[in-house]
């Protein structure tokens, strides 16, 4: 009794993308990155506009603003 070995030569879905598909993926990733960066800058700007007293009400000190904006960015 002999067994025939078979190999699955089917490529994963999307393994062979054409130039248009690669460009569309690149464009989508770039657009998402710009949107995330804009959200980060908006959060940073809004937090920086608050007074020290207002930040203290939230339990935040001014030196934590960048870290908080970055953490908000990573949530998405």
TrEMBL record:
Superkingdom of origin organism: Bacteria
One Pfam family named in its UniProt record: YjiS-like
Residue ranges constituting the YjiS-like domain according to the UniProt record: 33-66
UniProt-recorded name of the protein: YjiS-like domain-containing protein
């Amino acid at each position: 009794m002999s067994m025939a070995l078979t190999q699955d030569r089917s490529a994963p879905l999307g393994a062979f993308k054409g130039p248009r598909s690669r460009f569309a993926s690149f464009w989508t990733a770039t657009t998402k990155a710009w949107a995330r960066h804009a959200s980060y800058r908006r959060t940073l700007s809004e937090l920086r506009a608050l007074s020290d007293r207002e930040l203290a009400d939230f339990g935040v000190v001014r030196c934590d603003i960048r870290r908080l904006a970055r953490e908000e960015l990573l949530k998405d």
